[in-house]
Write a structure and sequence with these properties.
241 residues; alpha/beta; Spore Coat Polysaccharide Biosynthesis Protein SpsA, Chain A; 2 domains; two-stranded antiparallel ribbon; 29% helix
Length: 241
């Protein structure tokens, strides 16, 4: 069975942010926002190395103080508003392999602006990838509150049409199979897959990993951050103890 070990955890955190300037260093609870992702990764013994990919000396200093490593700075071309994440992941993997001399077999992406995942979620994803040697990766998902097979419509010719025609085969919404959305909480890919393609979405061997916690947060605006503060204060989001 193809093992996913050793695992490299990558936390991407560029310095520029328009929606919420300086968000990665804003204090949430008792530590900077980026610290929640760092502490989560550090709590999982299956992860061999935790690094932060950044272009910011300030973020690098904060990450180092929290025990993560920043063995390289992200190239400017990968630190713009329009830079896609996939080349950032590929750069982090190749640079970490060269720096540490370790042939990492898989890479875990933990966006610091995503909150709600727990160590058990990540451990479960690692086990799922371990058990399925043909899988390219495991992606965190959440079930839709309103199933698009039943509710999603569009208006291409002036009249309402189902966005998902297969929904017509069901006469009761209670009989619909579950449908999930990618929630951005974590992505775990095999390194061979990361190296082999320029677009991870083309794979038909990605395993969705449903998360049961409805209290998830993705922080991009001040309002998002305020909501995360409230959820953390109510112990509805995982946070370092």
């Amino acid at each position: 069975m193809a093992q996913p070990h050793p695992i490299l955890a990558v936390i991407p955190a560029r310095g520029g942010s328009k929606g919420l300037p300086g968000k990665n260093l804003k204090i949430l609870g008792d530590i900077p926002l980026i610290g929640h992702a760092i502490k989560l990764a550090q709590s999982i013994t299956d992860i061999a190395q935790v690094i932060v990919s950044t272009d910011s000396p300030e973020i690098a200093a904060a990450a180092n103080a929290l025990g993560a490593e920043t063995p390289f700075f992200r190239p400017p071309i990968l630190a713009t508003d329009t830079a896609p994440m996939w080349p950032v992941i590929q750069h982090a993997l190749s640079s970490a392999r060269e720096h540490y001399g370790v042939d990492y077999q898989s890479i875990l992406l933990l966006d610091p602006t995503a909150l709600g995942r727990t160590p058990l979620d990540i451990i479960s994803a690692i086990q799922t990838l371990t058990d399925d040697e043909s899988a390219d990766g495991v992606i965190s998902v959440s079930e839709y509150e309103h199933n698009p097979l039943w509710y999603a419509v569009h208006q291409p010719n002036g009249y309402m049409q189902d966005l998902c025609p297969e929904g017509k085969t069901y006469t009761r919404r209670q009989d619909l199979p579950p449908v999930y959305r990618i929630n951005g909480q974590y992505y775990l890919w095999r390194s061979t897959f990361v190296q082999s393609t320029d677009n991870w979405r083309i794979s038909d061997k990605l395993i969705p990993s449903p998360m049961s916690n409805p209290n998830l947060a993705l922080i991009d605006t001040p309002e998002d951050f305020n909501r995360a503060e409230e959820l953390v204060s109510l112990n509805l989001l995982w946070s370092p103890k």
